[in-house]
């Protein structure tokens, strides 16, 4: 395998440009792209770095990738300037911290036992004449509940009805619901259109005013695998067996192309409001929204892999953060050990040192 230093030149790394990144928006994120993005520091470069770290899934895996990038900064030879190296390491550390706390997209399948009941509220997005699941309210592009720059409805001939049709290019969604604390499942689908699948929820979304960053994951890197099924205690501490049983049934409907983000929020004014931070050249894509009471039985049944990501503990994030910080500090220590006084001053953001004249002959 070629080393990164053989793939990228310093000029290419520091000149990572928007057209190159946008042209590969749906491509799998690579270590080389992430390293170049860390050195470039541009908006597009940071996005390339985030895609690489976000695609790792679990926090500990993302931390391993971030620490590896920081170590590679030194080995690759892409940059010699100590300040450039430290700034790149800082960018990697910051991107990793954002990744650890980001909402993930979960691959989702709908089972034949999934039903809505009086405890749940559903909204099905798509064309006005598309099939609407029982228990769901239709939301089309003419609805007052959605706004966006030129929203357009899509319908596919195959797949489960909740996932196969939806609306592209939404900026804002306002859904009428009773006040209360909810678990919210926001559905999307892999429609094979790069600009609508790279970031189907935008770079982040505000849920009733609270900003939630959504991991930048291509459909291939959505977390495996979750199911919509009959309500049970799948999300309780002892719910793993029930969730695993759903996966064993083999009664999922349609292909595994749907995705979901799961969050909890409190509605206080009779309205769930979603506002998406759009990315230039890309679109959002939503197929449906399900709300259910937080803290009660759920229709969302996650696999073992999905549970590992969904139930990331604060101590897991702390360990991951420390792993990245250790790599960053090791890099800084190496740089300082080899740097001259002027370079050390720049790294520490101190005034340049004052040099005393060299006296080769003793005054005595």
UniProtKB/TrEMBL annotation:
<protein>
    <submittedName>
        <fullName>Uncharacterized protein</fullName>
    </submittedName>
</protein>
<feature type="signal peptide">
    <location>
        <begin position="1"/>
        <end position="23"/>
    </location>
</feature>
<keyword id="KW-0732">Signal</keyword>
């Amino acid at each position: 395998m070629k080393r990164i230093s053989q793939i990228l030149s310093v000029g290419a790394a520091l000149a990572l440009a928007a057209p190159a990144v946008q042209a590969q928006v749906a491509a799998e994120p690579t270590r080389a792209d992430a390293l170049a993005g860390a050195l470039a520091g541009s908006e597009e470069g940071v996005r390339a770095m985030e895609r690489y770290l976000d695609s790792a899934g679990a926090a500990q895996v993302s931390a391993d990738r971030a620490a590896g990038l920081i170590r590679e900064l030194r080995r690759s030879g892409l940059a010699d300037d100590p300040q450039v190296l430290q700034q790149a390491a800082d960018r990697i550390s910051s991107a990793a911290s954002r990744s650890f706390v980001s909402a993930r997209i979960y691959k989702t399948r709908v089972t034949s036992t999934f039903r809505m009941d009086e405890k749940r509220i559903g909204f099905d997005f798509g064309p006005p004449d598309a099939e609407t699941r029982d228990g769901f309210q239709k939301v089309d592009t003419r609805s007052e509940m959605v706004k966006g720059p030129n929203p357009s409805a899509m319908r596919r001939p195959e797949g489960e009805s909740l996932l196969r049709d939806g609306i592209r290019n939404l900026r804002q969604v306002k859904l009428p619901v009773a006040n209360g604390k909810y678990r919210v499942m926001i559905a999307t689908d892999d429609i094979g259109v790069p600009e609508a699948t790279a970031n189907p929820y935008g770079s982040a979304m505000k849920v009733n005013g609270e900003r939630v960053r959504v991991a930048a994951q291509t459909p291939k890197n959505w977390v495996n695998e979750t199911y919509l099924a009959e309500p049970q205690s799948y999300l309780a501490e002892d719910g793993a067996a029930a969730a695993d049983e759903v996966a064993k049934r083999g009664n999922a409907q349609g292909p595994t192309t749907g995705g979901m983000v799961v969050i909890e929020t409190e509605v206080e004014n009779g309205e769930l409001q979603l506002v998406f931070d759009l990315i230039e050249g890309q679109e959002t894509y939503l197929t449906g929204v399900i709300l259910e009471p937080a803290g009660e039985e759920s229709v969302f049944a996650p696999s073992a892999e999905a549970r590992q990501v969904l139930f990331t503990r604060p101590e897991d994030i702390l360990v991951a953060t420390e792993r990245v910080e250790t790599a960053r500090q090791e890099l800084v220590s190496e740089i300082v050990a080899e740097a001259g006084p002027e370079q050390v001053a720049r790294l520490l953001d101190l005034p340049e040192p004052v040099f005393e004249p060299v006296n080769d002959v003793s005054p005595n």
